[in-house]
């Protein structure tokens, strides 16, 4: 019998539907056998995982690796190192780089940087902007994982498209079948409030939340869902922070909108009240970390499936951009890709989530939502050998100093976690072990989505349809 590349023995294999004691054989980057160790083929390398659990590698659908354009904050080498150490085997990078990923040319520019440096697999978002509706189809052909629509402002201050442009964009995306990730905050409301707060001299840490009160999120979510419902576009709500959004998410899903939702560890573990502590201004991000009362409903929604998955909005900045007396002067966001798996395993230790649910929210659900399931998202024969080996009994203390990201800022400084990733494999290659990177740059590959056939609606009223001469609006 020809030996396979590797057999992992003695671990407990965690999938969405259960946990089994099993060995895993890997060959050519794929899983070729799962079962009793005695049944495993001979292997060139055997790794004993006694006492450890093996989860499908995490898929973080929301990171900002800042390259091209802002390498002083992060690049593909440092960002992917942080991911690998954290048990994350695939990342989706957001398009608000410099230049933004709004054309095939700019997509290729980012792809070159990612291919040469990343040690984990990656998807690249295209931008949905008012100026590039004509580029959306070409971006799909080039291989974007999906699109990003900024209804609220963000790093890079990309302008929010008008509702007319969003509707036309959704009509195009509905025909392509790719998912659109949406930063759902109402820009006119938040800027109106922010400008009035600034004029009145309110520049304390809580002014940021005051400008972006809950209705800013609730309104934008419902507007995006209304347009998705009308067009048949598939949408993904990023960084859901608000307990008041949850009934609306349930409503739109029950109505049949193809909508998935992520939340972030920072909304589950952190609160606006913490910003009143010394150095609390570091927690500034968009949407804001809300009052502690939002935490329990968000945890419950993550456990029951109202919220589909966990992501991080990994958003590194220079340390000096994160601290200061005036909240409006500080950068929004902080690193997260390295700590999210440990925080979710801590939720298992705390009895909040089952280990199977962690496999779903970190891997299975993201893979299904973005057309990767089968290759990614599960430990099964034929899948890529993307594996996060974790020690549920090992404790660690989170700190900025330990981060592999260039942005040495931690929102969780001093927090104890129980359950940490100890080995990470991407397509059968070990990329991280015990908190250190063990792979060369450039191992990561672009992942392309394989979505269900498009399901567009109301085709007789689309921009494309009504531009045809003599077309009657009733079809």
Describe how the helices and strands are arranged.
Layout: E1 4-9, E2 12-15, E3 18-21, E4 23-27, E5 30-35, E6 43-48, E7 53-56, E8 58-63, H1 76-85, E9 88-93, H2 104-117, E10 121-127, H3 136-142, E11 146-150, H4 163-176, E12 179-183, H5 187-199, H6 207-211, H7 214-231, E13 234-237, H8 246-255, E14 259-263, H9 265-269, H10 295-304, E15 309-310, H11 340-349, H12 355-369, E16 387-397, E17 416-426, E18 429-433, E19 436-437, H13 463-466
Parallel strand pairs: 1-6, 2-7, 8-9, 9-10, 10-11, 11-12, 12-13, 13-14, 14-15
Antiparallel strand pairs: 1-4, 2-3, 4-5, 7-16, 16-17, 17-18, 18-19
Helix pairs in contact: 7-8
């Amino acid at each position: 019998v020809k030996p396979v590349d590797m057999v992992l023995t003695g671990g407990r294999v965690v999938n969405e539907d259960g946990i089994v004691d099993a060995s895993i054989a890997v060959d050519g980057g794929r899983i070729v056998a799962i079962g009793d160790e005695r049944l495993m083929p001979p292997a060139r390398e055997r790794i004993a995982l006694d006492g450890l659990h093996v989860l499908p590698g995490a898929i973080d659908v929301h990171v900002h690796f800042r390259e091209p354009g802002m390498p002083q904050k992060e690049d593909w080498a440092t960002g992917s190192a942080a991911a690998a150490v954290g048990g994350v085997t695939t990342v989706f990078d957001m398009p608000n780089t410099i230049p933004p990923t709004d054309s095939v040319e700019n997509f290729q520019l980012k792809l070159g940087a990612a291919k040469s440096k990343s040690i984990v697999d990656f998807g690249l978002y295209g931008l949905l902007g008012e100026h590039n509706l004509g580029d959306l189809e070409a971006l799909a052909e080039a291989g974007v994982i999906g699109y990003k629509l900024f209804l609220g402002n963000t790093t890079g201050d990309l302008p929010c498209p008008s509702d007319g442009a969003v509707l036309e964009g959704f009509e195009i995306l509905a025909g392509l079948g790719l998912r659109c990730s949406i930063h759902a905050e109402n820009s006119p409301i938040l800027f109106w409030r922010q400008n009035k707060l600034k004029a009145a001299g309110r520049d304390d840490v809580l002014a940021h939340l005051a400008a972006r009160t809950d209705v800013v999120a609730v309104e934008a979510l419902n507007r995006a869902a209304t347009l998705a419902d009308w067009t048949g576009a598939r949408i993904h709500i990023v960084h859901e922070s608000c307990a008041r959004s949850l009934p609306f998410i349930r409503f739109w899903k029950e109505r049949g909108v193809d909508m998935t939702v992520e939340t972030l560890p920072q909304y589950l573990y952190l609160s606006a009240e913490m910003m009143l502590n010394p150095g609390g201004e570091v927690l500034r991000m968009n949407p804001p970390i809300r009052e502690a009362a939002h935490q329990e409903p968000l945890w419950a929604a993550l456990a029951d499936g109202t919220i589909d998955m966990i992501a991080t909005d990994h958003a590194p900045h220079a340390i000096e951009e994160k601290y200061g007396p005036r909240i409006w002067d500080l950068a929004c966001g902080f690193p997260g890709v390295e700590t999210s798996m440990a925080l979710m395993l801590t939720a298992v230790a705390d009895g909040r989530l089952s280990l199977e649910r962690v496999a779903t929210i970190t891997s299975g659900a993201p893979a299904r939502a973005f057309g990767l399931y089968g290759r990614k998202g599960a430990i099964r024969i034929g899948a890529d050998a993307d594996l996060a080996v974790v020690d549920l009994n090992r404790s660690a203390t989170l700190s900025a100093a330990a981060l592999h990201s260039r942005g040495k800022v931690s929102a969780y400084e001093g927090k104890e976690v129980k359950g940490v990733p100890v080995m990470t494999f991407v397509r059968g290659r070990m990329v991280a072990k015990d908190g250190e990177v063990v792979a060369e740059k450039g191992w990561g590959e672009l992942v392309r989505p394989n979505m269900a056939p498009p399901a567009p609606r109301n085709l007789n009223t689309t921009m494309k349809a009504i531009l045809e001469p003599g077309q009657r609006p009733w079809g």
